[in-house]
Design goal:
four-stranded antiparallel sheet; elongated; 33% helix; 1 helix; alpha+beta; 93 residues
Length: 93
């Protein structure tokens, strides 16, 4: 799995690194893994996870599930809004 991260300040990370950060949620959990820095520029970097610590996996899976649910909700909202615009009398859509 690859993950893009925003970088605050100059960064030229290369090779395998250890990453550790708090997963955002109402019950924050620490995430720790070994990752390969597969690309970076002045503003962001991409990491490919090589080994996620076993104690971090359930929280990470929950976080990914919540991101997917948010995306599906946004997509369904866009679809609903587009359908409403098309069915509104006098609408030119």
């Amino acid at each position: 799995m690859d993950l893009p991260l925003l970088v605050f300040g100059p960064s030229q990370v290369e090779g395998v690194v250890t990453v550790r950060f708090e997963l955002p949620s109402s019950n924050p959990q620490i995430f720790e893994a070994k990752a390969d820095a597969v690309w970076n520029d002045a503003f962001a970097m991409g990491l490919r996870f090589l080994c996620i610590e076993p104690f971090c996996r359930p929280g990470f899976a929950d976080w990914l599930d919540s991101l997917e649910a948010q995306l599906q909700f946004r997509e369904s909202t866009k679809s609903s809004n587009a359908a409403e615009l098309q069915s509104t009398p006098g609408s030119s859509a």
